[in-house]
Each structure stands twice: as C-alpha cells, then as structure tokens.
C-alpha cells in the first residue's frame, strides 16, 4: 500500500463553467480532509475561442483528456515537486486513466474515487505499471 500525501488537482472546464474555481476548492477541501496536501492546480479551459465552443463537452485528447501543453506542464510539476498522485475533477475512462498514469509516472485518481464510502488516500501498490501495449498493437493492426 502506498500513502498519498502530495497531489495536484487537474480539471478540464467549459468556458461556460464560471464556478470552476469553487469546484476545485471543494475538491481541495476533500483531499485535505483525507490527509493530503494539494501542491498545485491545473485548469484547462475549453470553448474560450470561437472554434472551441462547438466542442466544449468533448475532451481535448482521447488519450489524455487535456492538451499536450497542459500535460507537459503537469508532468514537469509532478517531477520537480515529487508529487505522489494527480487527481482529476473530471471522470476518466479506464483508457485515459491508464495513459495519464503512464505518462505522468504516478497514480491518477478522480473526484469520484474520493467520494467512495471507503475513500482514503492510500492506493494498492502494483508490481508493474500499466503499459498500454495491448491497445497500441491493436491500433497499429487496424491501420495497416
């Protein structure tokens, strides 16, 4: 079991969502109540430009939910500040969670994980991190 002490919060929000900071404050309070320390917040806004308005509810990346620049910013912070886990306010598919965890090199949780009755900031230790090899090889075969 691995205890999570330091986290960063991440959220993809529509430009129409005016209370996104308040939503992050609620998540921050939940993490703090569970014994964690929030060391950073990252916000990806969607629909701020004219072209983005049509796509506000869609993720920026099927694999990572957020854009590549924001992902790099989060990865750099996680490495430099020795962050234990990343918590997304958004729901993530198993696919997104696996790829984010692999790319960021640490567990990725969601707000929903913290809302479970037995929620804590302790995660089971895995002997081997997910690699996503099965999904990549299937995708390549489909493109040939």
UniProtKB/TrEMBL annotation:
Per UniProt, the ranges with Basic residues bias are: 135-144
Gene3D superfamilies found in the cross-reference section:
GTPase HflX, N-terminal domain (3.40.50.11060)
All copies of the GTPase HflX N-terminal domain together span 60-114
Region entry Disordered: which residue ranges? 122-144
Protein name, entry field? GTPase HflX N-terminal domain-containing protein
